[in-house]
Amino acid sequence: MMDRNARGLLAIGKGAASPPEDLRRLLMKPGLVTLPCCYDALSARLIERAGFPATFMSGFAVSSARLGLPDTGLISYGEMLDQGRNICDAVSIPVIGDGDTGYGNALNVKRTVEGYAKAGFACVMIEDQVWPKRCGHTEGKQTVPRDEALTRLRAALDARDEGAGILILARTDAAATDGFEEALTRARAFADLGADITMLEAPTSEAEMRSYCETVPGPKLANLIEQGRTPLLTPAELERIGYKLIAYPLTLQLSAVQAMTEALAALADGQRPETGTGFADLQEIIGFPDYFEAEARYAPPKAGAPEIQGPFSCFPAKPQVGRMTSRHEAPPARPREPEAG
Question: What is the pTM of this model?
Answer without folding.
Answer: 0.83
